[in-house]
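R.M. (postdoc): so does anyone remember the format we settled on? I'll just put the structure tokens first.
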């Protein structure tokens, strides 16, 4: 497409905007319903960071159906803002159940939260059935006067 056509097409509809390259309608009340994601094959990656500190605002089962990772990093330690979101953790189970193969998946939480612990305990059987392992922090890094939990991941 010539540059002048590209310029006109991006400004031709003031009611729409681009978010991550996807047309959205800002007047829509539901951010998920405004996305028009073309269907295609799933993407396989080694490591994926769950967007928005594992908030339910941007991640649903479709994310986990389309982005298939060996490792998912779950950050978030803000219960007041719904981080991490139980709905997102449940979406991992739902999305993974649609893969059709039983690839090993490792979930790496960056914080020990009540939401993550409850989800782990309540869905442990389903996790095993789907070949999902939750990696707990098993090491502590000490730097000067500060220490924090850490996980070692090898590829």
């Amino acid at each position: 497409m010539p540059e002048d056509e590209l310029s006109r097409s991006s400004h031709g509809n003031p009611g729409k905007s681009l978010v991550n390259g996807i047309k959205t309608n800002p007047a829509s009340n539901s951010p998920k319903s405004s996305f028009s994601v073309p269907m295609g094959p799933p993407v396989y990656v080694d490591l994926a960071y769950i967007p928005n500190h594992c908030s339910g605002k941007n991640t649903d089962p479709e994310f986990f159906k389309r982005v298939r990772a060996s490792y998912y990093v779950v950050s978030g330690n803000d219960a007041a803002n719904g981080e991490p979101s139980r709905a997102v953790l449940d979406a991992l189970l739902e999305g993974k159940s649609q893969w059709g193969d039983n690839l090993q998946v490792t979930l790496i939480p960056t914080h020990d939260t009540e939401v993550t612990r409850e989800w782990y305990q309540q869905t442990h059987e389903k996790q095993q059935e789907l070949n999902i392992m939750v990696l707990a922090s098993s090491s502590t890094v000490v730097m000067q006067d500060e220490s924090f939990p850490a996980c070692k991941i090898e590829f």
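R.M.: ...and that's the designed sequence above, right after the tokens. Also worth knowing: Strands lie at 17-19, 22-24, 43-49, 67-74, 105-109, 132-134, 139-143, 146-150. The first strand starts at residue 17 and ends at 19.
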